[in-house]
C-alpha cells in the first residue's frame, strides 16, 4: 500500500525550494505493453522489474471473445510458443508475466484488455460470472447495481478479474469465506493446450466440486488462460467504519481479538511513532443512514509536481543519511492521516466517525486510475520520476505473528528512529485472511503484513537503514516461515517456499496434467514458483536478489558490509559502517 504524499511534498517545497514542471493534463496509467517495429516490451506499473531487466516479447494479440482467446492459445501450441497473459493493468512486482525466448521469437503475449464485455449476474443463485479481462471496479459496480455485494474487497482496484484471483489478491476478513477473492470463486473456465484433433486448444469448465478448482483459482497464470470467473455474492449491505489512533502497547496481544471481533478489521502500525491504528469495520443493514466512501489517500490522484518533489526530498534525506528528517516527515504524515481519516469521506469530505456506506465503496479504491484533474497522476507513475519503492508482503500463520511483532519491537527499541523510513509510507499494514483450499493459498488462518520502503534509482546504491528492512524481511520469511504474496516482494522472499505449501505437489500435478509442455511457464515464473536464488554477484543483496554471505554482496566501497542481524542473529544483512574499513 502507499501513503498520502502531497503534504510531504509541500514540506519539500518549503525546505528545498520549487521544482519546475510544465503543467499538463492528467496522466492516466500507461498501457503495460509498448510495441514498435522491433517487437514489444512488457512493463509493470512501476516501470522496473525486480532484476531491472526489460521483458522483451516478439508479439502480442488482443482477443475480444472467448473463442478468439482459444484460437490464440491454439496458435501458440501449434507453433511451440511460450505464452503469458497480461491485462489492462500490470501491478505484479515479480516477473510472472514475462515469457521465455524473446530473443529467438518463440514467445507471445495474450492481452485481455479487449476481452471485458460480459458480466452476468445470477441473482437467484447469488453469483456473478465475468470475462477475465473485466476490471475489478466495473465488476463491483455492476454487482452493486443489481442489489448484491461482492464480500471480499481488495484494497486496490487496478486489477482484472482474472488477475485478482491468479495471484491471491485479498482484502481483510476472518469471517465467512474470508478476505481472499479466490476463496469466493465457485467456478471458472480455463483454456489449455490440446491435441491436434481437438484444435490445439480447448476450454475446460471447472465447477465448485471439481478438484482442479483448488489448483486453478490461484495459478500464477501457469496452468492455462483463465477466460471466465464465477464468484459467489451476498445480498447488498453497508459497512460502518471508524479508526482508533492509539498507543502501540500490547499490539502483539490485541491483534488476534481485533480480527475476530470486526468482520473487516485491519491494523496499521507506525513503529517509530509508537502508534497503532485499529480499524473498527463491520456490516450494517442497508437501511442504515449514510452514503460514505473510502478513497484511500495514497491511491488518490497526486500532483505531478508534488510527486516529483517528494521523491527529490526523500533522495536528499537518503544521500545525507538524515534519519531525523525522515522522522519529522513521519510525524507530520501520521498526524495528517489522523485528521482526514486516511481517505474516509462521509460525503464530499470527512466530518466524523462512523462513516457508513455501501460495501462496494468502503474498501476497494484507486481514483488515480481515472483522474481528469490537471497535473495529476498516480504518485508512482514511472514517467514522472515520482515515488519509487519496494513492497514486502508476508503471510504469517496467525499463531506465530505475535512473536514476530515482539521481535520487531525489540529491533525497534534499539533505535526507534531507524523505523521512520517505513512510517512515511504506510507503516506496517496488518490484515486478516482465512484458511484456504487453494493449493497455492494460505493453508491456515493467517495474518498479512504489508510495508513499503524507499528504493534507489539504480541497483548499486545502498539505502539508509537498509539492514533494518533486510532483518525484518528475513525474520518474517525464514524465522517465522511466512509465505510471500505472489504478486509482491523482492526475489529472496520466494526462496525455499515449496515446503510452506502442504499441497504444492498437488499443484505441480495439475500443472503437468493441464500444461504438459510447460507452455505457460518461463524462466521468470519458475524462479518464483520454485524459489530459486539468483547467482550471487557483486551487490546482489542490495536489491534482494540474494542474501549476502560476503561483503562483496553488499557495497563495501560505500561502507556497507555483510553482518549478522541485531535481534534475529541468523539474518545476514548489509549494514553501514562509518569506518573506512570493516
UniProtKB/TrEMBL annotation:
<dbReference type="InterPro" id="IPR050432">
    <property type="entry name" value="FAD-linked_Oxidoreductases_BP"/>
</dbReference>
<comment type="similarity">
    <text>Belongs to the oxygen-dependent FAD-linked oxidoreductase family.</text>
</comment>
<keyword id="KW-0060">Ascorbate biosynthesis</keyword>
<dbReference type="InterPro" id="IPR010030">
    <property type="entry name" value="GULO_Plant"/>
</dbReference>
<dbReference type="GO" id="GO:0003885">
    <property type="term" value="F:D-arabinono-1,4-lactone oxidase activity"/>
</dbReference>
<dbReference type="InterPro" id="IPR007173">
    <property type="entry name" value="ALO_C"/>
</dbReference>
<dbReference type="GO" id="GO:0071949">
    <property type="term" value="F:FAD binding"/>
</dbReference>
<protein>
    <recommendedName>
        <fullName>L-gulonolactone oxidase</fullName>
        <ecNumber>1.1.3.8</ecNumber>
    </recommendedName>
</protein>
<keyword id="KW-0285">Flavoprotein</keyword>
<dbReference type="InterPro" id="IPR016166">
    <property type="entry name" value="FAD-bd_PCMH"/>
</dbReference>
<dbReference type="Pfam" id="PF04030">
    <property type="entry name" value="ALO"/>
</dbReference>
<feature type="domain" description="FAD-binding PCMH-type">
    <location>
        <begin position="53"/>
        <end position="236"/>
    </location>
</feature>
<feature type="signal peptide">
    <location>
        <begin position="1"/>
        <end position="22"/>
    </location>
</feature>
<keyword id="KW-0732">Signal</keyword>
<dbReference type="GO" id="GO:0016020">
    <property type="term" value="C:membrane"/>
</dbReference>
<dbReference type="InterPro" id="IPR055154">
    <property type="entry name" value="GULLO2-like_C"/>
</dbReference>
<dbReference type="InterPro" id="IPR036318">
    <property type="entry name" value="FAD-bd_PCMH-like_sf"/>
</dbReference>
<dbReference type="Pfam" id="PF01565">
    <property type="entry name" value="FAD_binding_4"/>
</dbReference>
<dbReference type="InterPro" id="IPR016169">
    <property type="entry name" value="FAD-bd_PCMH_sub2"/>
</dbReference>
<comment type="pathway">
    <text>Cofactor biosynthesis; L-ascorbate biosynthesis.</text>
</comment>
<dbReference type="Pfam" id="PF22906">
    <property type="entry name" value="GULLO2-like_3rd"/>
</dbReference>
<dbReference type="InterPro" id="IPR006094">
    <property type="entry name" value="Oxid_FAD_bind_N"/>
</dbReference>
<keyword id="KW-0274">FAD</keyword>
<dbReference type="GO" id="GO:0019853">
    <property type="term" value="P:L-ascorbic acid biosynthetic process"/>
</dbReference>
<keyword id="KW-0560">Oxidoreductase</keyword>
<dbReference type="GO" id="GO:0050105">
    <property type="term" value="F:L-gulonolactone oxidase activity"/>
</dbReference>
